[in-house]
Write a structure and sequence with these properties.
three-stranded antiparallel beta sheet; alpha+beta; four-stranded antiparallel beta sheet
């Protein structure tokens, strides 16, 4: 419930979580020590540098940690705040080959990724909220509480925006929306009723990402994708008399 308390104080705080990859055991590679609040980078023996670099973090994970471990510690606790009406963003940053796609998508027949875990966590929280408000049991819907979860999915490559839910929509334009801020013109918006439908659309969109080979390598390594979920909730209050 920490995230909900943060909402009442004015918003969800920015958090930095770090996962360390397994060491290659190279004498030219720095040694990295990590705990729950600090990352220490120890220069390799052959380096001219001798100073240990230390950075404060909000959560640290070793090479043996799973996506479920990271979700339980960092992402899952944010869901109650989102259901209470706050906005949240998740940004994965790292060099090519460090496991960003694996963390998001998981394995086809193995460990789930963040997208899968967040989808089931969010819909589970919405259904639980519906039960608390009105005893609703059918897909989180009731006469007193309804919700609509809408998704968009786009790719950014070479300064071009492509709609991954409708790939005929290419070279999309940005515009300034009075309510939403910067938005994408004519992007496809799909409502999803449960985690399974959402994950099906996500998988279809993921399959439409750029796979061109360029002079600088695989284009997919240079492209970024943005998945956006908009949650609209309606609660009808009881009136006396």
């Amino acid at each position: 419930m920490k995230a909900v308390k943060a909402v009442k104080r004015g918003g969800i705080p920015i958090q930095c979580a770090v996962r360390v990859l397994p060491s290659s055991r190279s004498k030219k590679e720095a040694d990295i020590l990590i705990d729950s609040s600090r990352v220490s980078i120890i220069p390799p023996p052959e380096s001219r540098r001798t100073k240990v670099e230390e950075y404060s973090i909000d959560a640290g994970f070793g090479p043996d940690s799973t996506s479920q471990d990271q979700y339980d510690k960092v992402l899952g606790p944010l869901i109650p705040a989102v259901v209470e009406g706050m906005s949240g963003s998740i940004l994965l940053f790292g060099a090519t080959g460090t496991g960003k796609s694996f963390a998001l998508e998981g394995e086809r027949h193995g460990d789930a990724g963040f997208v899968d875990l967040l989808a089931h966590g969010l819909f589970g929280a919405l259904m639980e909220k519906a039960k608390q408000l009105s005893g609703g049991t059918r897909r989180g819907m009731s006469p007193r509480f309804t919700y609509d979860l809408r998704m968009t999915y786009l790719e950014i490559f070479d300064e071009t925006l492509t709609d991954l839910l409708n790939t005929s929509n290419r070279d999309l334009d940005l515009y300034e929306d009075e309510d939403a801020g910067v938005a994408v013109k004519n992007i496809t918006v799909r409502s999803v009723k449960d985690a399974e439908e959402f994950l099906e659309l996500f998988t279809e969109g993921r399959g439409c990402r750029t796979d061109l080979l360029t002079d600088y390598g695989n284009a997919a390594d240079k492209a970024a994708s943005v998945l956006t979920l908009e949650l609209i909730q309606t609660t009808v209050e009881d009136r006396d008399g």
